[in-house]
Here is the input.
Amino acid sequence: MGTDDDRTFPGVPESDDEDDAVIVPETGGAAPRSREGTDHARDGALETGAAGDGCGPDTCTCGEKTDERPVATDGAGVSNVDETGNLGDLEFTDPAEGVSQDVDNGEPDVRVGVPEGVELDTPEYSIRSQMNDIETPDEKTWFMELDEAVIDEGRCIQCGTCVAACPSDSIGVGDDDLPELVKMCTGCSLCWDFCPRGGLRYERQWKITGGEDNVKGAGDPITEFSAKVDDDWTDGAQDGGVVTGILATLLEEGEIDGALVATESEDEPWKAESYLATTEEELIENAGTVYNQTLALGNLDLEQWEYKLPDKSWDELSLALVGTPCEIEGIRALQDFDWDYQQQNEGIRAVDYTIALMCTKNFNYYSLMGEQLEEKRDISPEEIGKMDVLHGKMMVYGHDGEMILEEDVENFHDAALKGCDECADFTGFCSDITVGSVGSADEYSSVILRTEQGVNAWELTEPKLDYHDLEDKSAVGKLQGWDKKKAFESLERPFDPDAPRFIDYTDHAENYGTALNPHDEGH
Here is the structure.
């Protein structure tokens, strides 16, 4: 840039009439310049004066404008805009071809490929680490918290409630049959809130579903029976085939369109998988008990069963769900809230009947069938025809019905799911119907009716049943009491049916010693 003496005023015409000239005052020693009629702004922009006297962007009345437009400067370099605000011609540099980007394996905060003489004022790489140091608010709970406190700790009971609860379908099931994150978590907290070993205070759900008496002893059911189905197909069923008989009747009467039950995997003997049975034949084929979880609530995505329900509108479907007490607690809690559970939503809303199987503990498939039976006891899954847990014994039968193992179930404790120890719900307090073997003679099932929906199912099935009063009510109450005592010893939190339904992660972490915001801990 030149000195003040070299400064020019763009577009200022010379005056021939000294009397009419307007003198531009001296600035910094520059010679006086004159201008006619029109005022010129000091920054070079033109303002129109009296009509017909001024120079505008497209016209000139003074005779001094030429095709060579002065170029304004902004202090940082030459701008491609003239004094009237018009954009000049742009020049582009063709991109280089066949040349790779300059890369460098040096420090991450050093820019590479910067043209000589160019200074870049950009944020340092350290801004990223500063952002990583921002703590997450305690009230926002992520899947990582559930992973830290329940799954990684071995406390997951494989009920699938977290999969069903996720409103963004971010949770799936891994090869180890445990929940895992399959896409970005939104931090909505629902997976934590509804987990029976995490945020769901399951004993509070008992009272919400079944009332005050559901927290005492074995609860206060409407009525109880010992029953069996009097039919030839019950030979392959568990203790009289009552569950299969009730479901078949509900299908026959048009009360349900299908029942979510357990089936045996085609690839791994005695490994349980979820299956939607829509005919009596399918129910009979899958009668019996498989002693590992199916993550049933994670299989309420009706799209996977669309081939079995081709003529049904999803919002009109009615289903029955057979599961362990924890699974029934989960579905009841999910149904209490009118939220959108995405892919699982139609399935959750469609469940109208729930049947709980009496349960003290469940097992990890690979630990039970692989380590305990095959490796330690030389019993391969292929030679097993039936399994049962009765009177505190693990019983294994061959395909010919001969017992090949009878052993205290406590000897299989290492194969049991650790989270089962915290469960005080042996009899399925949240279900419509509870079915098990405790309290009844061999080949009979103990049946507890808990709701009007359960009574309706029973009354429809009654003509097909051989039944009488429950033979040993005290046996059910005694085992329920034992189960509750075991849970009290295992729970690290207070057992309180009157407390709020959901437990904050911060409160849980305080009781269990788990990390707050584990993602900030480099989880």
About this structure: The longest helix spans residues 473-490. The chain has a mean pLDDT of 82.
